[in-house]
Amino acid sequence: MTTPIQPALDGSIPVQENNFETWVAQVRPAFEQAAATGREFASWHIKVDAELPDPPNPKSQWGALMHRFNEEGLVEAVSFTTTRDGSGVRTWRGTRTARTRRAAA
Fold it and tell me: Do 65 and 22 contact (CB within 8 A), yes or no?
């Protein structure tokens, strides 16, 4: 169900902020492609390589995205690495199913 957009008092239509689900739909193809390769990656590698936008709440939603992909069976946790600023992050690899989908396509 689509929520109607309330025009501003001057009659203009405000720009809608992307919600989490819209953002997931935007970035999913890049992660599916990365998962299909079978190589190990951190989410920020894919963000930078594919020039992906940040989610509405970057501090929590990158992790939520990867958790979702893990729950869906697209990726599996492999190890940890560090970001450019020294923060520790989990690394991922596409599951056998994700790699097989690419071979079947």
Answer: no
